[in-house]
Design brief:
218 residues, two-stranded antiparallel sheet, six-stranded parallel beta sheet, alpha/beta, 8 strands, single chain, Rossmann fold
């Protein structure tokens, strides 16, 4: 049985899309623009600020106005990290089961640590999560394996004894590079244009509680 399970945050552990979409539309309102439809924004959450501004403003990081918009977006988001954000259905039960079985778990995300930590705290998980590794915690963010290797080091477990669950192809690339068993969360945002079946994950799940079956069959 795996000794540890690590989760991506946005689109895997928690449904953060409502608050991120709300932030984007507040920023658009500040610029006199109409709001973007939620269904258009949700798939971009895994791509972070870059994805949200791409849809909302049609702008890329190479353009001069991008840096200012990104800074303002992050400032607005920091004010409303956990208004509508919640754990995905079944995730709370899964975490309870992991705790009961003595399987440590943590969060490895590309969200900046200064935003990830207060969000985990607002969700009431700080004392239970063994680690919160952000996109700026390790030397390189996903798809490089550095954050996952750091999480394993913090947990005192070997990567080969760990699962990594994520809803983006970069999560699977990073997990495989780290030597972990990878699980693709089909219930998440899946911002990549590559079909989830082509991500080369070890397993694809449609619901968090399916991870329990993986633990029992490992």
């Amino acid at each position: 049985m795996p000794e540890a399970v690590f989760f991506d945050l946005d689109g895997t552990l928690a449904d953060t899309a409502p608050d991120l979409a709300g932030t984007l539309n507040r920023l658009k309102a500040d610029h006199g623009l109409e709001p973007s439809p939620f269904e258009q924004l949700r798939p971009q959450v895994s791509n972070g600020v870059r994805g949200m501004l791409s849809v909302g403003f049609g702008i890329t990081p190479e353009e001069p106005a991008y840096a200012g918009l990104a800074q303002r977006f992050l400032s607005l988001y920091a004010e409303s990290l956990c208004v509508e954000t919640c754990l995905f259905p079944g995730m709370a039960e899964l975490l309870d089961q992991l705790d009961e079985r003595g399987i440590v778990w943590g969060v490895v995300t590309n969200k900046a640590e200064r935003l990830a930590r207060p969000l985990i705290d607002a969700l009431g998980l700080t004392k239970r999560s063994l680690c919160v590794v952000g996109g700026d915690t390790a030397a390189r963010a996903k798809p490089f394996p550095d954050p996952l290797l750091l999480a394993c080091c913090m947990a005192g477990v070997a990567p080969s004894s760990s699962l990594y669950v994520g809803d983006d192809i970069r999560d699977i690339v990073a997990g495989k590079a780290a030597g972990m068993r990878t699980v693709a969360a089909a219930y998440g945002y899946r911002g990549s244009h590559t079909p989830i079946s082509a991500w080369n994950a070890d397993t694809i799940i449609d619901h968090p509680l399916q991870i329990l079956q993986l633990l029992e069959n490992a």
